[in-house]
Design brief:
The protein is an alpha/beta fold.
Length: 482
């Protein structure tokens, strides 16, 4: 706008065409203390508006006269239901004064483009506005309904609620479980956060320790019957648990079918932490610093600090959590010290790297901490010219592989699925993924001290060849990138 003032400071408005939409806008502006001039060609309507102490005048908005009447107004809203009339009005306004801020009403995307080309600063389509408002109301109503159902389920718990995370829980899974535990506590129900695998990644261990989140390992539970309500949070399987599932909350569709009493699965959201933040808000709870910090980190980790698949819901959830979070703790979580095991794996991966173009594949050998593979894959992505990494190692007669990519042309999750989906288990998405392949599929050799080196050589050749093929590069002539 060329007048040099902000919209919030403007007091002079004109409304051209005062049907139901124009009248509603005029009422709101007058309520805010704005000076509003209304132009409409219907004399009886103008007379009625004057009876309500509104400044209204009779004129045809299609004629130059109307543009002259509102020439001194800072903002003009052209809101007639007839789009052709709105176009004519806009043409006259722009001929008279190119500095006025103009909002024009369209009827569809085509007329919206035409009004924009004629010089409208903002184009509104009532149908779209109504649809968006209806969807927001529907989302709000669904959340209120779901919160009621969730509260009903949790409050039916007689003994304890079991909140099950991913097998090796990541920040999103841990944070979401902590949020559900806070909700259960708010409702007067005791609960435990349970995981089936291990908390291996150093950032995840730091995350749990710094925030004081209590996790219970599945194998350490003495009496499973203590849990009469079971909720899977950011976790899509219960195959190893001899417990029926009562609730599933996730942002991914589950791999297996459940028939729980409560289900909230939203693939349109980037993190389960975002979903749980909305429940925290709906329950009108005083979110603790620990839970707020956990949820904020869960959202940031799942969206790569809002650089991957971020939705408006993720941003609004993060904005809500930000004032309650401990940002010093977040900084500590994001910069944990590196364990000797991880350092060894990284050194092995650097030494054994095979670079083809911008793709790097490396064998880290026999590993004790398979989570170190993911850290090695992330660190190697910082090498100059490298956009995709895959680091694999052997543990427990299984080949574990971690992949990372910043190449927008590659979906590393699909690459690993194409390469190993038929022989093992794969998971992930466009920027990070993992695979687990039974060692025997490649070798058929029993592991022993005498066969370790042979297994390593056979595995390296087979895994690298399969992966480079899936990436669409020739891996026959390797380079260590030096």
């Amino acid at each position: 706008m060329s007048t040099g003032v902000t919209i919030s400071s403007i007091s002079d408005y004109a409304i051209l065409g005062c049907g139901s939409v124009g009248y509603a806008v005029a009422e709101e502006l007058v309520e805010q203390g704005k000076d509003v001039l209304i132009i409409d060609r219907d004399e009886s309507r103008v007379e009625s508006l004057r009876d309500q102490d509104l400044d209204a005048r009779t004129a045809d908005i299609r004629e130059p006269e109307a543009a002259d009447l509102i020439a001194e107004r800072d903002v003009v809203l052209i809101l007639a239901s007839d789009v052709e009339s709105n176009k004519r009005a806009l043409e006259h306004i722009r001929t008279n004064n190119d500095g006025q801020f103009v909002v024009a009403r369209a009827s569809d995307p085509v007329s919206g483009d035409e009004l924009a080309e004629l010089g409208a600063d903002i184009v509104i389509n009532p149908s779209s506005v109504i649809a968006e408002s209806a969807l927001r109301a529907l989302e709000s109503g669904e959340l209120e309904y779901n919160a009621g159902k969730l509260a009903e389920l949790v409050e039916e718990t007689q003994n304890r609620l079991a909140i099950i995370t991913q097998d090796s829980p990541d920040p999103d899974s841990i944070a979401s479980a902590a949020a559900l535990q806070a909700i259960a506590d708010h409702l007067g129900i005791e609960s435990d956060i349970i995981y089936l695998g291990d908390v291996g990644h150093q950032e995840n261990r730091a995350f749990v320790n710094l925030l004081g989140i209590d996790l219970v390992q599945w194998d350490e539970i003495e009496d499973y019957s203590a849990y009469d309500t079971v909720a899977l949070v950011d976790h899509a399987t219960s195959s190893e648990m001899d417990l029926s599932v009562d609730a599933v909350i996730d942002h991914h569709e589950p791999d297996q079918e459940f028939e729980p009493e409560f289900v909230d699965i939203r693939p349109n959201m980037s993190s389960t932490s975002t979903i749980m933040t909305k429940y925290i808000q709906e329950f009108d709870m005083n979110v603790s610093e620990e839970v707020a910090t956990a949820l904020l980190y869960g959202i940031r980790a799942e969206t790569l600090d809002f650089k991957r698949d971020t939705t408006p819901a993720d941003l609004t959830a993060a904005a809500y959590l930000y004032p309650f979070a401990n940002h010093d703790t977040l900084e500590q979580v994001e910069s944990p010290s590196m364990s000797p095991e991880t350092l060894d794996v990284l050194a092995e991966a650097i030494a054994n790297r095979d670079v083809q173009g911008s793709h790097l594949v490396s064998n880290a050998g026999f590993v004790r901490d398979r989570e170190a593979l993911t850290q090695a894959a992330s660190h190697l992505l910082n090498l100059e010219g490298v956009t995709t990494t895959a680091v694999f190692g052997i543990a427990d007669e299984t080949i574990f592989l971690a992949g990372r990519s910043k190449d927008i042309r590659i979906n590393i999750g699909k690459v690993l699925d194409d390469a190993y989906g038929e022989m093992g288990e794969t998971a992930g998405h466009s920027t990070q993924a993992s695979a687990e392949i039974p060692l025997g599929i490649f070798t058929g050799i029993e592991i022993s001290e005498d066969t370790r080196e042979t297994l390593l050589e056979l595995t390296e050749e087979a895994v690298k060849r399969t992966l480079f093929d899936a990436m669409g590069v020739d891996g026959s002539e390797g380079s260590n990138g030096s």
